[in-house]
Amino acid sequence: MRKPYALPLSVLLYSLSLLLAPLVLLAPAASRAYAADNGSWSVYPFATQLSARPYFILSADLGTTVRDKVTVTNKTGAPLSFRLYAADAYNTVRDGGFAVRTAKERQREVGAWARPARSRVTVPAHGSVTVPFTLRVPERAEPGDHAGALIALDERVDPGSGAVAMGVQRAVGARIYLRVGGPTVPALAVEKVRISHHQPLVPGTGTSTATISYTLHNTGNVTLDPRVRLRAEGLFGRTLLSRGLTRIPAELLPGQRVRLSEPWRGAPQLDWGDVTLTASAQGTRQSASTSFLALPWLVLGLVLAAAIGGAVVVVRARGGRGWPWTPGAARRRGRPWPLRGRRGRARPSVPAPPSPPEPSTPSRRRSSPSARP
């Protein structure tokens, strides 16, 4: 049995109840009703009772500075000390939730531009502390939306429970939505659409399901409230499915990608078609598709067996007459078959040159016997 061990502080779990707070909107007139809250302390924009703000919603031009205040409230009966810092926000890859970087991560936008006047505060029991902060937008910042949060981190490590010791640090933050002046471009893309089937071995003996996965990518520079619609068509254009999806993030920050999936219960067990996902938001609309072939394993096995059996029958029917052709077999038979068509091809005849005439010799005249003396 392995002994329990403690994780180092560098991998301590942050319980950022910033998640960023299922905000309690029970009393709109009260500023604390909008606070990010974990039950022990809350963080929210400073405001009067008549001008409550749920988040910091700021706008600034390049090279300018914004000043505001954040309030931290202690709900316990003992003083609490916190580290105050600004952090960049991002969408979690799994479900697109709003999350922020930890204090040890590098900050590039709001987390680098915002600075509270005090980095550490102690809040008395059932009391509040308000801290000013400044946010300076660099001259070379990108126009459009930038998101982050002001975090109040309790640096104490709560001991975990269970066989594995795990320390937990808790933090609460107030969101910051900053719009930097300049051109804005809303753009949304649907990427890497995939479909996987889960079918019974024997058709008709169970329910067929499918999982459609895709990536939603904000390619513009403004925060989007995306909507996604799923449509599936079978053979001959039959509509198999058409519905709007609900498992999507409420807001997709600029430049962020989220990998999502959607179950399809009652998917066809034998069909061939396409799945199309259409994502839209204010000022943008984009679609992406993928094809699918629904084929039960039993049917696929029968098709493969039939194909292999047919190939064997064809080979046997030819009686081994040179099929399939191999180079060794061609050498044993003589010339390879591609050269057989050249047999019987006559070469063009060339006339032989005439032979020179033989020289004639003079004949000697012979005398007859009667002419002799």
Automatic annotation (TrEMBL):
The chain crosses the membrane at residues 294-315. The keyword NADP does not apply. The keyword Glycosyltransferase does not apply. Residues 330-346 have a biased composition (Basic residues). It comes from the Bacteria. Keywords: Membrane, Signal, Transmembrane, Transmembrane helix. Residues 323-373 are annotated as: Disordered. Residues 350-360 have a biased composition (Pro residues). Residues 1-35 form the signal peptide. This is WxL protein peptidoglycan domain-containing protein. It comes from Streptomyces kaempferi.
